Amino acid sequence: MNISYLLPHRFKRIGWFVFIPSCILGFLVVALDFEPDWLDLYLPAIFIDSFSDSQERLIGIIKSNFLNEIFGVLIIVSGLFVAFSKENNEDEYISNIRLNSLVWATYVNYAVLIIAILFVYDFTFLWVMIFNMFTILIFFIIRFNWKLMKLKKSLNHEK
């Protein structure tokens, strides 16, 4: 089956190689509030509303530590590689599992978001929203791979 929106299978290995360390290190960077000085850079920004600068601007240059952005991009890109690379034997059944997993991940992601809207407040809600950027992709990867593992196990038991 030719599915044009999927990446070649080789991207999956690259994705896993970057995704797992990026998730672990990214979480540690956030949890430990680690910001190396050599990554304090002057960066272009849009919609600037800084605590230290009373002047709001649409576009400008700000000084910021770039480490969180590095890990955010690594997690998203590698997660997309893992999630949307073809399987070795991509067929209609695997496509169906992929679609069902994506729908399930969307439902779970928004259920978590609704719970957060109702029960999480103030600055903690900002952290929930930051992590929520990644959860739909993570939920999809977990569900899709779990379903594939169950499929492979059932096929092995039939042999």
Would you mind describing this structure in some detail?
The chain has 159 residues and is mainly α. The chain has 2 domains: 1-87, no CATH class; 91-159. It contains 4 helices and 2 strands, in the order αββααα. It has helices spanning 10-32, 67-83, 92-119, 122-158; strands at 40-48, 57-65. It has a two-stranded antiparallel ribbon with strand order 1-2. A hairpin with an 8-residue loop joins β1 (40-48) and β2. α1 (10-32) runs antiparallel to α2, α2 runs parallel beside α4 and α3 (92-119) runs antiparallel to α4. The protein is elongated and about 70 Å long. It starts with 9 loop residues before the first helix and ends with a helix. The relative contact order is 0.14.
Question: What is the compact description of this entry?
Answer:
With 159 residues, the chain is mainly α.
What are its keywords?
159 residues, mainly alpha, 2 domains, two-stranded antiparallel sheet, 4 helices, elongated
Secondary structure: elements and pairs:
Elements: H1 10-32, E1 40-48, E2 57-65, H2 67-83, H3 92-119, H4 122-158
Antiparallel strand pairs: 1-2
Helix pairs in contact: 1-2, 2-4, 3-4
Helix content: 55-70%
Categorize the overall geometry.
elongated
Structural domains: how many: 2
Largest beta-sheet details: 2 strands, antiparallel
Briefly note the structural class of the backbone: mainly alpha
Looking at how many chains there are and whether they match, the oligomeric state comes to single chain
Low-confidence stretches: none
Cα end-to-end separation: 24 Å
Average pLDDT level:
90
Backbone CA Rg: 19 Å
Number of H/I helices: 4
In total, how many beta strands?
2
Strand order of the largest sheet: 1-2
Strand content: 5-15%
N-to-C SSE series?
HEEHHH
